[in-house]
Amino acid sequence: MDQDFLTLSLSTPQDHVLMVTLDRPEASNAFNTQMGEDIVALFEGLALDPGDVRAIVVTGAGERAFCAGGDLKQRHGMSDEAWGRQHLVFERMIRAIIDCPLPVIGAINGAAYGGGCELAAAMDFIYAAHHARFAQTETRIGIIPGAGGTQTLARALGERRAKELILSARVFSADDAHTWGLVNAVYPQADLLDAALATATAIAGNAPIAVRQAKQAIHRGLQMSLGDGLAFEIEAYNRTVPTQDRREGVRAFNEKRPPRFEGK
44, 81, 138, 248: which one is catalytic? Predict the structure, then answer.
């Protein structure tokens, strides 16, 4: 990625893997308007032109917080109109992550509260450090989750658990999040990024078109009836059949060598 962002740090620690770091550690990586706009620009840009990126890992700067949610210092004293205009940015931000055709893996390195929890839940799957904590704290300040939390948490945790956590604004641990299905695995802080990057690297080594079609089939299929989901799966499957990657995968298997996928 050639573009510079004021609130995000980008790196490519492995071939075809983009590391995105929320970089406002002085504010516990809370997202202000600028960060929202930066995330929109990054993820919408990747949707239009991923370049050689095949998988994305998102984490936070420092060890204390992944993301503390919306920056309430910036929001202090905002008029209703200004609040609403800013929130439109945050709504677009979450949709940009959810709709990203590339796999997005969260490496939750600390507290993920409020919108930070929603940000994590918007990703395809997440790993967490042992000390990470999660909470939907919005009802404590007179609002409700407005960046997808009532929908993504309910889908990940089930309706009853989501109601319990959102209505109570209770903080829960990484181990609880793992047990309940929000987090895929929990690691010591020192091992978190290595684990996320290992999975991202494995994904990036597979056929890019097939990976994107599989992600779409799972995500959209779960919002359909089983019959409609099966039909959608076949549509996604058929998009992989005429690709060079499909031919390369079969050829490499028969030649007993690693495939060289080009995303074509």
Answer: 138
Whole-angstrom distance, CA of residue 216 vs CA of residue 103 = 10
Alpha helices in the chain (DSSP H): 33-48, 72-75, 80-98, 115-121, 149-157, 159-168, 174-180, 189-204, 208-221, 226-240, 244-254
Is residue 66 a contact partner of residue 116, using CB atoms and an 8 Å limit?
yes
Per-residue pLDDT tens digits for 87-135:
898 999 999 999 999 999 999 999 999 999 999 999 999 999 999 999 9
Q: Which residues contact 216 (CB under 8 A, 6 or more apart)?
A: 101, 236
The pTM is what? 0.91
In angstroms, the Cα distances linking 197 to 100, 146, 167, 184, 211 are 18, 30, 34, 14, 16
3-state DSSP of 114-146: CHHHHHHHCCCEEEEECCCEEECCHHHHCCCCC
138 tagged catalytic: yes
Consecutive H or E run containing 8: strand 8-14
118 noted as active-site residue: yes
Closest listed residue to residue 151, CA positions, set 219, 54, 59: 219
From 26, 37, 44, 118, active-site residue? 118
